[in-house]
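--- STAGE predict ---
source: upstream dedup step, 1 unique chain passed
mode: sequence only
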Amino acid sequence: MVMKQPDDRSHFLLPDLGEGVTEAELISWKVSPGDTVKEHQTLAEMETDKALVEVPSPWAGTIKDLNGNVGDIILVGDALVTYDIGVAADPAATSTSTEKAEPAQREDAGTVVGNVSETLTMPSSFHRDQSPTPANADGGRALATPAVRRIARDLKIDIDVVSGSGRGGRVTASDIQSHATTPAPTSAAVTQITTPAAPVQDDVALATRVSQPIEGVAERIPFRGVRRKIAEAMQHSLKTAAHFCVTEEADITDLERRRKSLESLLGRRISPLPFVLTAVCKALREHPAMNCTVDDFIDEIQIRSVVNLGCAVDTEHGLMVPVMKNADSLGLVQLADRLGELARRCRDRSIDLEDLSGGTFTVSSVGNCGGMFTTPIINYPEVGILGVGRSREQVLTKNGAFYAGIVLPMSLSCDHRVVDGAEAARFLTTIKRLLEAPEHILPTF
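--- STAGE serialize ---
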C-alpha cells in the first residue's frame, strides 16, 4: 500500500491499494469527525475488486471531515479524510496548498494517481463539477476501459478528444456514441476528429429503470461489494473474450480407488480436486498456448513461463479466486494444503491482495453443489477456465465388458481469439488421459 506523506497534512488521499486497483468501495468508517487518531490507526474498511482492506492513518491527528458515505466508490488519489490542522498552521503554506489544488481540480477532476501527494481532488460525490470533463484536458491519454477503446476504434474516433462523463472523467460507451453523432464545433479554439453518425452497437448496454410496478419484494440488497465486482468482471470478460466451450468425461474409477488408499495412508481426507489441479498443471506444460494472458490494451498475447493456478472459492461474500503461485512445483498433497489455506482465508476475508491476482489459468469446481456440465466464464485476461462437475457412478464398457465405473464431467471454456477449437480439445484430452492414468499424478513415497 503506497502512502507517501504530502506536505499538506490536512488531506489524506486514498492510496494505491494494490496492483491494478484504481477505485474502492467504502464499506465502513472506523472513526468519526472530532476523533483523535494515532499513526497507523484504521480509518476505514474499503473493498476493492480483489479483497477487503483496512486503510490506516498515515500520521497522528484530529479528524475534521470524512469525505464519503458507506457505499460510495472512491478513486485512488481522491481525498478520503480531512484532518484538522488547527488555526496555528502556517497561512502561507495553506494558501500555497490551496492554490495548487484548485487548478488541478479545474484541469482534471478525475485524475487517478498512485502518489498521494500529487493532487487534492475530491471523490465524485463530493465538491465535484458534474459536467463532463474532457478526458485529455491535460493533454494526456483518455481514461477508458479496453472495451470502450475498442468501440472507439471500430467507429474510427480518437478517444483522446472525447469528453468523459463517467466516474473520474472516464470515457464511457455512451460518450463515444454521443461524440460520433455530435457535429464538430465551429470554434477555431477547439479541434476534434469527427466521424459520420453511427448506430448504437448491440453490445452497448445502458441501465434503465424498471417501468412496471414491482410487487412482493421480500428483501432489497444493494448491488455492491464483491458481488458488484464479480458482475463487472464477468460482463467485461463476456464482452471481450470470444467464448466457446468443449466438454468431456474422464473415467476416474482407478483414481478414486487410489485416492481412498492415499487417504488411509495419510490418515486424512483428500478430495478429488487436488488430483484435477495436478493434472491441469501437467497439461498446461504440454499445451503452453493455454497458459497465457491477453493484453488488449496493446493487442498482445503473453505466453507465461509460470503456472499460477486460480481456483474459484464460494464464500458468503461472493465468488473469490485465490491464486496458487508456481502451482506446478507443488506436489498433490501440497496443492491440497495450499488450496485449503487460501480458501479459509477467502472465507474469513484475511487473504492478501497478492494471492488474488496474477493467475494464468483457473479451475472452477461445482461438484460439491451438484450439476454435471457447466459453461464457466473465463477469468479475463486469462484464456481458459476448466469447470469440474460432480462425479457419478455409471455403467461403462472396456474391452467389450461392462463394469460399474465413476465418471467426472469436465467443461473447458476458452477465448477463441487465442485458442483454436482443436487445441482446446487436445488440452482437455490430455487432462482426461492423466486422470485416467493416476500413476502419473499420484505422489511417490
